[in-house]
Amino acid sequence: MSTSRPLLLDASVLVAYERELTRRTQAFVVQAITDGRILVASALSLAVAAAELADQHRELSWLVDDPEGPLQVLSLSSMNALDVGVLAAQTGAVHMAALELAQVLHEAAGIGALVLTYEPKLYSGQSVDVMDMRPR
Fold first, then answer.
1. Among candidates 65, 75, 2, which has minimal Cα distance to 32?
2. What is the DSSP letter of 119?
3. pLDDT tens digits for 9-19?
4. 2: buried, middle or exposed (CB in 10 Å: 19+, 13-18, 0-12)?
5. Secondary structure, 3-state, 32-63
6. What percent of the residues of the chain are helix, what percent strand, and what percent coil, each to the nearest 5?
């Protein structure tokens, strides 16, 4: 098992993985699994991705259905729900995307994760490290 930083996949990466918008996403995830990297997603990222995908999430289900599978889902507990709510309120708008962003920021800071995203502007000015997954 690798001692590298965990990789936290936000909703944009989860949607891209499912839709195969770019082969880069699936190849990156498969390589991370092969390398023994820790892959995580916040529960709210998974919920936002599921809402966007409607009932079309066969590939994503493969990642999350197995409790011993390659993607760990970070739950929203009573303890971190309060912190996530406060972070979301600081953005001025409390909607699903703001809640997801808040949980991603909270979890990334807590575990020292690198956030993978197709929407890097969401994280500008935040104190997390981000990997822009958009093709160059």
1. 2
2. -
3. 999 999 999 98
4. exposed
5. HHHCCCCEEEEHHHHHHHHHHHCCCCHHHHHH
6. 55, 15, 35
Q: Which of 14, 8, 10 is nearest to 101 (CA)?
A: 10
Complete edge-to-edge strand list for the sheet that includes strand 71-74: 71-74, 39-42, 7-9, 114-117, 129-132
Residue 135 tokens read as 């093709």
- The first and second tokens of residue 44, run together, are 């709210």
The pTM for the full model equals 0.88
Torsion of Cα atoms, 12 then 16 then 17 then 18, to 10°? 110
Calpha distance 34→84 (Å, rounded): 32
Name the token pair of 70. 């390659």
Structure tokens at 29: 């995830």
Whether the Cβ atoms of residue 9 and residue 39 lie closer than 8 Å to each other: yes
CB-CB neighbours of 99 under 10 Å = 24
Q: Which residues of the chain have pLDDT under 70?
A: 1-3, 21-22, 93
